[in-house]
Amino acid sequence: MKTYGSDLDLNEIYVNLKSQKKFNSIQLHFFNQKGLVTSIGLHKYFSGISIPEKAFNAEKSIILDLKDSISSSEAKKFEFQSHRYAWFSFIHFEQKKIGVLVLPSNSKPTSSSKNEINSLKLLIEQQLQLSHLNQEIKKTKKELSEKTLETESLIDVTEIINAQKQAKEQLFSDILIMILSIMNASKGLVLIRDKKSDFFNVEALFNLNKDQEPKHILRITKGVLKSLNDSMSSLIINDPENHKLLNFAKKNCIVSPLESNNQLEGAIILIDKESRHGTIRFTNQDLRLFDSLCKKVSLAYDNIQLIDSLKESHKLVENIMSSITTGIIMINVLGEIEFVNNSARKIFSIDNDDFLQNHYFMVFQNNPNLITLIEEAESQNEIIFENNFKIDDLGGTSHEINLTLSPAFNEENERSGIVFSFEDLSNLNKLKSTFKKYVSENIVDELLKNETSLELGGTQNEVCILFCDIRGFTAMSEKMKPEEVVYLLNNYFESMIDVVFSNNGTLDKIIGDELMVLYGVPLKQKNDAQRAVDSAKQMFQALERFNDKIANEGLPKLRIGIGINQGKVVCGNIGSERQMNYTVIGDAVNLAARLCSHAKAGQIVISKSVFSELENHQGFNEKDPIFVKGKKKQIQNWIFNA
Amino acid sequence: MNKILEASLNGEVLVIKTEGYLNKDLGQDIQNAAQEHINNGINQILIDLDKSNIVNSIGASIIIELIEQLQESEGTLAFCNLAPIIEKTFKIMGLTKYCSCYPNEEDAIKAMS
Amino acid sequence: MEKKPTVELKLPILKNMELVATQTADVVSKHMQLSEEKSGEISMALIEACINAFEHSESKSEVYIHFIIDDDNLMIKVIDKGIGFDASQVKIPKIESKINSDERKRGWGLMLIKELMDSVDFESSDSGTTLTMIKKKDQNDE
What we know:
The complex is a heterotrimer. By secondary structure, chain A is α+β, with helices and mostly antiparallel strands. Helices cover 40% and strands 28% of the residues of chain A. In chain A, the strands form 4 sheets. In chain A, strands 17, 18, 19, 20, 21, 22, 23 and 24 form an 8-stranded mixed sheet that branches. In chain A, β4 (85-93) and β5 (96-105) form a beta hairpin. The longest helix of chain A is centred in the N-terminal third of the chain and has 52 residues, at 111-162. The termini of chain A are far apart. The relative contact order of chain A is 0.05. By secondary structure, chain B is α/β, with parallel strands linked by helices. In chain B, α1 (24-39) links the parallel β2 (13-19) and β3. By secondary structure, chain C is an alpha+beta fold. Chain C is 36% helix and 26% strand. In chain C, β4 and β5 (128-136) form a beta hairpin. The B-C interface holds B 1, 21, 23-24, 28, 31, 54-58, 60-62, 65, 83-85, 88-89, 92-93 and C 16, 18-19, 22, 36-37, 40-41, 43-44, 47-48, 51, 99-100, 104-105, 107-109, 111-112, 115-116.
């Protein structure tokens, strides 16, 4: 209960009053509901005195005839003994009677004395108001300065937290130091929970020596962490000696939880407060400021976690984006390029970030067709797909791409832009065309479709081998000019290889004028032998056409002989690192070669293994078995005359 | 199936040798065996898991409590002859931060004395 | 699609029955020529998974364990017909913190399984829980 009287410099008022000589024995009493609490002007202070009823009920100042209104004992208390009359004038504050001004007098009151009393009373009331206001101002000032400190501190803490570039350890170290200095703490610790083991680790500490650092298991099952976990609020620990973690504290400690999802994720602990006079205790006020600072950190910790996991998933996304060979470009609703992945950069030959945030009109200005497509995509909601679309990259090189333009939507199902994804076919084409040199396109497609069928290293397979020689070529070429020889051969091979490929054969090698073809690798098919034979027959037909053509050019006609054998061979990349060929090795190969050399011009010579695979033996006549070097038995053979 | 083979003092270190599955039961047996010695002032314990090559997390968490208890009196707990999977499990659980793992009893005793 | 070779166990909920599962796991691991290290990790994860499953079932029924053998990996399913649980369940603080408290068990199991296996998945409803974990084979194993 407030005692108003104590705020005023009552002595001064009293002295002032007294100095106005008219009032020798002025009294000023303040009271609460129970009775008087402060009295000035009386020699004694006592409570329990009661104001005479008449006086109490009076609204304004009243003068009482003491003989009538007051008992002698009361009169004694008020020291009215020698007086006949007494003025009672109540002091009001905030519409309540809080005190009374008593002026004993011997003479009957006059109106002027009444006025004087009233003005005295007003004076006192004004001073009360003033003093009260002063107090309020002081209080407000104090609160304001506390708030300012708090706000500044919060700003500092926020700045640290938002400077996300630091590693987590550095972050907590900085936060701890900041909070330590705001709170004037002597030592501090930050504990963070290990996600896996549930134990708490020291993430940052300040001013603790080796012995003071915690080495024991820290869990929420006991100690400071248990208290924090149970209360989930900041605590002041006044008995640090009872806590293993804090028993080196000199005075007391304040601790605050860092929480996320209602779980204790960490704790910030401050030990001992520093002041000019040495180490002192933290107060409840300190606790309040500490609490608001740490709450901020706690809130931010959640965000830090989120940002960390976002960074992780961002990294993950980036990794995925950069490892896929499909180019991806994201265009926002304004038409600006928002994202370009690594493959897209490669395909378009972009080497800097100039692409980003620019409009696609600018960026793709070399590719008006592409711009038209994107415009189309912008205006509709369907996915646009184009095959073998030609584009020019930034360096001017042409590429063929398969592209897809899809509308993109955000979580609220609003249009958020376009995803432009594309595959550079040029590489694929290059691959195909390289491969195409050795196998027909069909086989390439087949291989590319079915990875497991591509066994390029050391396997044994049943293969059909065809050798095709130009009879008497060496002699012929000596009579021709070099250019003519090359021209002739190339054109010859071109028609032969066309035949090979149309029968899905694999070109193994060309040695001079000799052609070696495989059927059954890299992809085994059921009718390898038949296809080999068909190829051979078609080769003769193609040769006829070829001969007619070159005859017109004045070049000599060519005559060929073909040998075909089927058997087990070893297939693989043979050679050295620098020079390697995919080829086949084995007896079956040698036999095919032998059969070929046995073939006269216009003949196809085949072995039993081939013969038995044929559906149609028409045209094949068995001949006398021939001797082949290295083999004891003679080899059966059939000859077809083209 | 599983039991304590031996629980005896080697100098100031209580060596507890176990056999079999280190589950809740065996974990409690270990704690009980340790308790008496702890009451007598022993605060260094070596657990030899040579004959135990399976553990579960409950058994391990009982060991954690034992470690906590020892830490009250600045004591230590160590292991020796750990099977690789047990060492790995202890590492994941965070145990290995608070106790050492030695390849054999001799090395452990030497380090702990 | 051919069905992959599967070993199926039906375990009663008795003490230490998880060791039956680990014995089987050892044999399967050997059959798949998995390394010692992987074999140990599988057994450890399996122990924890079984303990969890036993807990959900509250000794009412059995726990089923399926080992599905594939060329590239071993998939193990631990199935119980118990009450199910919500992995994101808020921890209800228990008053007693006796040594036998269930609180402890729940903490480690799932975390260990996730650390030891290559992928972990589970579905839980009030008619049971299926935990599926996969250990991949790699070149080092053969």
